[in-house]
Amino acid sequence: MIVTYELTHEDQDRFEEITGTHAAASDSCPGCLRFRVGKDIQHAGHHQLIEQQENREGLDQHAAPEAFRRTVQALSTCDIRGMQPDRYEVV
After folding, report:
1. Residue 91: its pLDDT value, please?
2. Residue 29 per-residue DSSP state
3. Mind giving me the DSSP string for 34-78?
4. What is the DSSP letter of 81?
5. What is the pTM of this model?
């Protein structure tokens, strides 16, 4: 899954802090192959989240814990101007 977020300048650091903490915790979850967040160097204010799980069950388990809900809640405090799922596939 690849998702692009567009943020205000004021919220970029907060977004990076929240998603960086979540990415570090996600990397150690069973079934997680990759979870990264980074700036889009071609578009100011855009960040990309890249998540790869072994299977659909891994993705479902990733979204179930309380930590995921806390992350979503924390992200709601950021002024996210846009969110575009660029790619999502289950093989």
Report:
1. 57
2. S
3. EEEEEE-TTSTTEEEEEEEESSHHHHHHHHSSHHHHHHHHHHTTS
4. E
5. 0.81
